[in-house]
Amino acid sequence: MAVLDSKVPKGPLSDKWTLHKNTINLVNPANKRNIDVIVVGTGLAGGSAAATLAELGYNVKTFCYNDSPRRAHSIAAQGGINAAKNYQGDGDSDYRLFYDTIKGGDYRSREANVYRLAEVSSNIIDQCVAQGVPFAREYGGLLDNRSFGGVLVSRTFYAAGQTGQQLLLGAYSALNRQINRGKVQPFNRHEMLDLVVVDGKARGIIARNLITGEIERHGAHAVVIASGGYGNVFFLSTNAMGSNVMAAWRTHRRGAFFANPCYTQIHPTCIPVSGEHQSKLTLMSESLRNDGRIWVPKKKEDAEAIRAGKKRGVDLPEEDRDYYLERRYPAFGNLVPRDVASRAAKERCDAGYGVNKTGQAVYLDFAEAFERYGKVEALTSGNKNASKEEIIALGKKVIEKKYGNLFDMYQNITDDNPYEVPMKIFPAVHYTMGGLWVDYNLQTTVPGCFAAGEANFSDHGANRLGASALMQGLADGYFVLPYTIGDYLADEIRTGPIPTDTPEFEQAEKETRARIEKLMSGEGKHSVDYYHKKLGLIMWNKCGMSRNAQDLQKAMDEIKALREDFWQNVRVPGSPDTKNQELEKAGRVADFLELGELFAKDALTRNESCGGHFREEYQTEEGEALRDDENFTFVSAWEYNENPRDAKLHKEDLVFENVELKTRSYK
Questions:
Q1: CATH number of 505-633: 3.30.70.330, 2.60.40.10, 3.30.365.10, 1.20.58.100?
Q2: Which CATH architecture has domain 268-429?
Q3: Phi/psi class of residue 260: alpha, beta or left (left: φ > 0; alpha: ψ in -120 to 50)?
Q4: Are 458 and 442 in contact (CB under 8 A)?
Q5: 85, 151, 264, 389: least surrounded by Cβ within 10 Å?
Q6: Does pLDDT of 624 surpass 60?
Q7: With pLDDT > 70 as the criterion, what percentage of the chain qualifies?
Q8: Are 233 and 597 in contact (CB under 8 A)?
Q9: Residues noted as catalytic
């Protein structure tokens, strides 16, 4: 049994990372060129890690299932990236970013990792500016900032509503440079199917060429898993349809513990579900909550009339509107954290105040922002007697400059013009805070196997604050992993090249082929999507925004039965020896069917509410999350079992020496 040693350095919180870097083992530059590293996933975390490791001199192989790293799901991030530079002079600091992140995660994060994240955040911005990332700038040329949920300062750097795309292009350019130098060997359209462990150490992977169907062996001295999160276990989520848990789960099957699987983030600002035809949901950036006000009708009869098409929300007078976040959380208003905003929207819709045909939507309204910005624009341009129409027109231009591509995207999807009528939004599955358990060095419980970005569990606790995903991905890839991986690789300089003709590689390939054959041998009654949709409904209805013991137990039973039916009756047409997208999907859904049951088991085991994990049995009189710090201040790290309900729980106790554990309040 692996020992959960987090390897957190001793010493004051603010000195831990510096002291650690000063004392860990290093690899001589001349030796780095004799060491091979595999990076699985080429989004922000994987792409930045691969580029930096290659720049340091390591030989790197990258693997991604897309045709280019530029198509990684990191590209979909809209709102921004946090950094504690205090450009606004509003009191920000490394400690405040650290504290906001710990509090936002409902005190279920590891202190040392979160402080390190805050500490290196400023370096990320400098790095990206040097790469040419076109961050928004103020009139004087300085980088601009905006606010996100759960904080009282402006620390989010952004590039309109396409921050992820611009940051990914920066990482991709750095990666391309190393490809051209011959230090990175890219394997695009390849999917990792297994981790190869030799003498207890990660020594390579088994991958499938998604064009030819060929099964390949790849050896290395270390493997980095940077393959993103598992939100698609719900089928409907804001993730790209290809996003999956395969690399992380296959690593879990080989001995890496999986931590906090039930910590899944529900994003409050998504375009509502419109019908059963949908295969994914669309995120509207949290940055919109800076200027948009969220509301529902005060009267049920108004909500019913709106749902029936007899009234329009835009025509409802101000006194008949319930700005429920501003009412319930006056200090933070519309910028409460995502879990709080999501549950509040669900509560209003469950009570009968929803505003679309399904009753599962609330309004996000920019009318007040049009007028507020328009007045400023009119005055600064010398028009002191502007009419209301002129003011609103000027305000719309300001909003268009800040969020124009988001407004266009919303109109293209819904055919509603958000400049004229309020947006309709509803919560949806977004990010996963759980993932592979890692220590302070980002190493899993399998020596030589590391995990970065959303693939690991380390920084966000039970709820991720907005604009922190890009921060963690780039922090891990640019500034953490390149240091810490050397501590492990310093003992590998005499190992020599890793051969792939060993019994361990032979056995791993044999098991991979057998699994593919089993997938292809189903009786063919139902498609892969049939099972994925059924799993998604179980997960959303019983493991979604709120959970209870009875539903979680039912979910475990239903998922187990669905998994058994999947292996018996799934239909995977075609051949495994050529391009076969249904086979790709089948392998991913097979892993989701195991993960889903472990997810429910983890949620059932944690008898408290915290962050995105909301157990109905554990809530305050006001309906807020009720933590149990005496019994559940730990990380749940699960050891693999082929029957997920029999997985063994290991605990990493969370020690808080620098913050006081207390009930979160955003009032």
A1: 1.20.58.100
A2: Alpha-Beta Complex (3.90)
A3: left
A4: yes
A5: 389
A6: yes
A7: 100
A8: no
A9: 338
